[in-house]
């Protein structure tokens, strides 16, 4: 239920730029399809060249010049699709930053003063600066890659199924093993992420309060007690981050190795020579 609610909340936040996100994802998908098509076309061209036969696909015969032109066009489309998708997503991310910060500022002007006092300037800074900036990074960099990560394996799997179902099965087995390893890396990630965000908020709050109270600190004390809250918040942040990385580093590295191209290529190669 919590995950569903958070997903609905995320979609509501991204709604003002939903069309921009879809455009970025569509452009990156086009780039992926074009790049994979170039690799497939190149494989047929190399096969025809090795066998010293003319390249013929779907009843059409291609000369060497036509083959090079088509390959160049496919690669250009793939490059432009990827580049334009990130340009569009970054423009949308900057628009979202402006919209969110204006909306938050307008909302803060209407809330009770007690909420401002309780949250503190450090907590408000985290919301308006850190959280919005993190969302910018997600929209600008992750949304095009989401389309790529979906379209690329599906299209590759279809091509492998057409070529040989055993090749598709070998690549799927490596993918499943990689996801299993990553599931261990993501275990308890929600718990640690919440503690990480809380520690960040406490650090921001402690720093701002310490700086604002500096004149009083200089007058009445040596700063030991005032600095203590910042030190404790920093220690909590360090301990939580260390524990999180200790638990997730090994499985995440193993999962990333399995999900890299080399294991899949090795599995497909071994199945191909059997």
Whole-number tally of structural domains: 2
Shape assignment: elongated
* Mean pLDDT, all residues: 81
Write down how many β-strands occur, each being a DSSP E stretch of 2 or more residues. Answer: 2
The whole-angstrom Rg is 26 Å
Helical residue percent?
Answer: over 70%
Beta-strand percent range: under 5%
Q: Strand order, biggest sheet?
A: 1-2
Q: What is the makeup of the main sheet?
A: 2 strands, antiparallel
Instruction: Please give the count of helices.
Output: 9
Which sequence of SSEs, written as H and E, runs from N to C? HHEEHHHHHHH
Helix vs. strand class: mainly alpha
Distance separating the two termini: 48 Å
User: Which ranges are low-confidence, i.e. pLDDT below 50, for 5 or more consecutive residues?
Assistant: none
Overview of this structure, please?
The relative contact order is 0.09. This protein has helices spanning 2-14, 18-51, 64-108, 113-163, 165-185, 189-212, 214-220, 224-259, 261-273, and strands at residues 55-57, 60-62. The chain is an all-alpha fold and 274 residues long. A two-stranded antiparallel ribbon has the order 1-2. The chain folds into two domains: 14-163; 183-274. The two termini are 48 Å apart. The model has no long low-confidence stretch (mean pLDDT 81). Helix 2 (18-51) runs antiparallel to helix 3, helix 2 runs parallel beside helix 4 and helix 4 packs antiparallel against helix 5 (165-185). Helices cover 89% and strands 2% of the residues.
């Amino acid at each position: 239920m919590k995950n569903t609610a958070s997903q609905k909340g995320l979609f509501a936040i991204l709604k003002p730029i939903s069309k921009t996100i879809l455009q970025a994802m569509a452009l990156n998908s086009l780039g992926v399809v074009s790049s994979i098509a170039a690799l497939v076309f190149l494989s047929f061209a190399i096969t025809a060249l090795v066998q010293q036969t003319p390249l013929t696909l779907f009843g059409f015969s291609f000369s060497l010049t036509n083959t090079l032109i088509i390959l160049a066009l496919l690669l250009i489309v793939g490059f432009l699709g990827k580049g334009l998708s990130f340009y569009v997503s970054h423009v949308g991310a900057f628009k979202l930053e402006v919209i969110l910060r204006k909306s938050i500022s307008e909302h803060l002007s209407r809330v009770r003063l007690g909420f401002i006092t309780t949250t503190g300037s450090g907590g408000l800074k985290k919301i308006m600066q850190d959280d919005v900036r993190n969302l910018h990074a997600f929209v600008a960099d992750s949304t095009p890659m989401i389309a790529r990560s979906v379209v690329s394996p599906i299209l590759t799997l279809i091509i492998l199924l057409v070529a040989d179902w055993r090749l598709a099965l070998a690549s799927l087995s490596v993918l499943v093993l990689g996801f299993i390893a990553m599931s261990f890396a993501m275990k308890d990630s929600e718990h640690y992420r919440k503690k990480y965000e809380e520690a960040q908020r406490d650090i921001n709050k402690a720093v701002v309060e310490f700086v604002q109270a500096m004149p009083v600190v200089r007058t009445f004390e040596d700063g030991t007690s005032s600095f203590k809250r910042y030190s404790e918040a920093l220690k909590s942040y360090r301990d939580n981050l260390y524990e999180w990385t200790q638990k997730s580093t090994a499985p995440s590295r193993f999962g990333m190795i399995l999900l890299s191209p080399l294991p899949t290529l090795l599995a497909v190669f071994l199945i191909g020579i059997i």
